[in-house]
Design brief:
36% helix, S-adenosylmethionine decarboxylase, six-stranded antiparallel β-sheet, single chain, alpha+beta
């Protein structure tokens, strides 16, 4: 049984509008709009306007949103993390489209914080008994052919050594 209590949404925004990407103010607005859209209370923010990168982050109780914007590449990496079951990170997609104007968005959702006390990995074998039998049969056939070739080669060498 899965007892995941956290959500982590990773969003890649490709070919974003350069005007929006080069403005730290617009990246900051995107963070605040995204937090508001999902109902995240913002306790603190962080901004860094670097030479090739703009970083904007908003932190709230049990959650954060972070944008790493690369204006020269037209690329933005967005990270939304929450341990609050009421927050729905996927709702930020519309905000990101409106603020960064990407041509393409790719999102990856990850479950976080499995609090199952057992914590044993769930391993399921995809090999059936028949599949294992076929593999063994094929291995034996290949080995048999190798042995037969070896014996044939050895006999050919022996036959050429003696008188006729």
């Amino acid at each position: 049984m899965d007892n995941y209590i956290g959500k982590h949404l990773l969003i890649d925004c490709y070919n974003c509008d350069s005007d929006n990407m080069e403005s730290p103010r617009k990246v900051q607005e995107a963070i605040h709009d995204a937090a508001e859209k999902i109902g995240m209370a913002v306790n603190d923010t962080f901004y860094l306007d670097g030479e090739e990168e703009i970083i904007a982050a908003a932190y709230g109780p049990k959650s954060h949103i972070c944008i790493h914007a690369y204006p020269k590449l037209g690329y933005a990496a967005v990270d939304i993390y929450s341990f609050d079951q009421d927050l729905k990170p996927a709702r930020t997609m519309a905000v990101l489209r409106a603020s960064l104007h990407p041509e393409k968005i790719r999102a990856t959702s990850v479950k976080r914080g499995n609090i199952n006390p057992d914590m044993k990995p769930n391993i399921k074998s995809k090999s059936t008994t028949l599949h294992k039998f076929k593999n063994t049969r094929n291995q034996m056939k290949t080995t048999g052919q190798k042995v037969a070739n070896y014996m044939r080669h050895k006999n050919e060498k022996r036959d050429t050594l003696g008188p006729e």
